[in-house]
Design brief:
Oligomer: single chain
Strand order of the largest sheet: 3-4-5-6-7-8-9-10
Helix content: 25-40%
Structural class: alpha/beta
Shape: globular
Strand content: 15-25%
Largest sheet: 8 strands, parallel, barrel
Radius of gyration: 19 Å
Order of helices and strands: EEEHEHEHHEHEHEHEHEHEEHHH
Number of helices: 12
């Protein structure tokens, strides 16, 4: 079994355990981010993620007062101008200047409550070799000993949009100073199965090297891909789908069309959106508990109505990486 439970510690004190599902809030979604935080501030009582870019540029940004652990993303996603088909109609096209100096200025101003996970800087127009990425991340984190340090691994060459998994594996010894390592979902491979294989291979090599730190997958927080990546060996998951869609009927549904059929055609769409994200957050919490049950029992039925799909997908993964089809 690749699924596991890890404890995140800061100065020897536990600040969270995996599996960890992290709802993200970002200006990349075409909604009022300050209003969104106000709506969810009483709802989010666990970990959350917000971008350093938004902290820097949005004045009087409300806080998630009940969030117990805050991930501060690098800002690379928000400052990007390109977009994917899946984001059409939900993408905010304008972007501001973003660079290492602005990122460093922002994280220097952060307080220590709640506990922060600082994610290393990246920019969509900057591509550097992995050893340079590691060096830059270590220099960034050298200033702060009161936070958890997450290294986000990015493609190394201009024009490339995939992580070189072999290069990551060859440099595992250099990753030990970090508390978490992260990968953007789509940069791990063109298909979900390719990404599962990449996660499993990295995880197996980390185990071989006794590198017992969590793997964070950026961009995956939904009813289908998140369980697949969890089964593959990832530990932390975040995404914006909980703000953009409805998690219902064991799937991810478009709010504008499915919302009225669920909540009623006479309900204001703003109300439907608010009700949907509250239900989505409850779904996220439930899914996290389901993961823990699966990890303890190995019973796929803990993963809900799609459990047979997950079992078959995991068996396909094991065949590919040379594992035994017995859940171990």
């Amino acid at each position: 079994m690749l699924a596991r439970r890890l404890t995140l510690r800061l100065d020897g004190i536990s600040v969270g355990t995996t599996p960890m599902l992290v709802p993200s809030i970002s200006s990349r979604v075409n909604i009022d981010i300050a209003k969104t935080i106000e709506v969810v501030s009483e709802t989010i009582t666990g970990p959350s993620l917000i971008s350093a870019y938004d902290i820097h540029y949005i004045r009087d940004l409300p806080s998630l007062s009940k969030s117990t652990l805050t991930f501060i993303d690098s800002g690379g996603y928000e400052c990007a101008k390109e977009h994917e088909v899946s984001e059409i109609g939900l993408y905010r096209p304008e972007s501001h200047e973003w660079n290492r100096e602005l990122h460093l200025e922002t994280i220097r101003k952060l307080d220590t409550a709640p506990t922060k996970v600082i994610i290393s800087y990246d920019h969509p127009r900057e591509r550097t070799p992995l050893d340079t990425q590691i060096k830059d991340a270590r220099a960034l984190f050298k200033e702060r000993n009161d936070i958890l340090k997450e290294f986000l691994i990015k493609p190394e060459l201009n024009g490339h949009n995939r992580i070189d998994i072999r290069h990551v594996i060859l440099n595992l010894d250099s990753l030990s100073p970090f508390d978490i390592i992260g990968f953007t979902e789509k940069e791990l491979g063109p298909s979900v199965f390719d990404r599962m294989i990449a996660i499993a291979r990295i995880r197996n090599e980390m185990d071989e090297n006794r590198l017992n730190i969590p793997i964070h997958i950026f961009g995956s927080l939904d009813p289908i891909t998140t369980p697949l990546y969890y089964l593959s060996g990832a530990d932390i998951f975040d995404g914006l789908a909980w703000l953009r869609f409805i998690f219902a009927r064991n799937s991810t549904l478009y709010i504008e069309s499915s919302g009225p059929s669920i909540e009623g055609i006479h309900v204001n769409m703003d109300q439907i959106w608010a009700m949907s994200i509250a239900k989505n957050y409850n779904f996220i919490r439930r899914l996290s508990m389901d993961f823990e049950k699966y990890q303890s029992t190995g019973d796929y039925q803990c993963l809900g109505p799609n459990h047979e799909f997950y079992r078959k997908s995991y068996e396909d993964l094991l065949v590919n990486i040379g594992g035994e089809i017995d859940g171990k």
